[in-house]
Amino acid sequence: MDGEPGETPSLFPEKVGEKLRDARLAQGLELSDIAARTRVPLRHLQAIEASDYSGLPSPTYAIGFVKAYARAVDADEVALARELREETSDTFAAREIYESYDPTDPVREPPGGIVWAGAAIALLLVGALALWYGTDLFRGGVSVAPEPAVTATPSPTPTPSPTPLIGGQVTLIATQPVWLRIYDATGARLFEKEMAAGERYDVPRDANNPMINLGRPEAIQVTINGSNVAPLGAAGRAIKDVPVSAAALRARGAPGASSAPPPQPTPAAASARRAATPAPTPTPRARPTNPAPLPPVALPSPPVRIVTPPPQTTATPGT
Question: What are the boundaries of the region Disordered (predicted)?
Answer without folding.
Answer: 253-319
